[in-house]
Amino acid sequence: MKQAIVARADLGMGEGKLAAQVAHASLSAYEDAGRTARNAWKGEGQKKVVLKATGESELFELADVAEREGLPHAIVRDAGHTQLDPGTVTALAVGPAEDDHVDRVTGDLSLY
Amino acid sequence: MKQAIVARADLGMGEGKLAAQVAHASLSAYEDAGRTARNAWKGEGQKKVVLKATGESELFELADVAEREGLPHAIVRDAGHTQLDPGTVTALAVGPAEDDHVDRVTGDLSLY
At the top level of CATH, which class does the domain B2-106 belong to? Predict the structure, then answer.
């Protein structure tokens, strides 16, 4: 079981900002998952990978694939208090789910 | 309502690694919180701040304060598959809770 969190590398987010956006996406997708997937993933240590996207359109395309695959997922929009304009799409989380199922959506992306 | 996630700045973690550790701490402390605090925090948009610690001992000291204050909190140890030795303590999350209650623990720290 794993969760993939895809964050935009084109926004110039600082390290702390990036981490907060990734955490937000992670929790939201976790809550979109069923109890069985949640518990299996936690039991295995909450494996996460953080991956790079090049822009907003790529995040939406990946979210569409996740939706078609029936995978838990969540898109994050920043509230815009700091660094970014309000409503900026920053990250997408996919899973927790079986590794190969998540890889069908995010398997071609590079590590952040 | 907010959650503060304190991560070690002395480990030289890469951006993606840092984000994964922060997300892990965030979710674990969230699960340590009661339903009322969880729902109130999510209803306000999951406000998070990512802060710097200088080393392991500082994280443990802050965790002790959070425990005494009765705040939900969680320490993360890395599984050590990449970059870090297994069991390395990397991050602490405190909250979700009222802002001023979280600040009693982490109010003196710098943004990451």
Answer: alpha beta
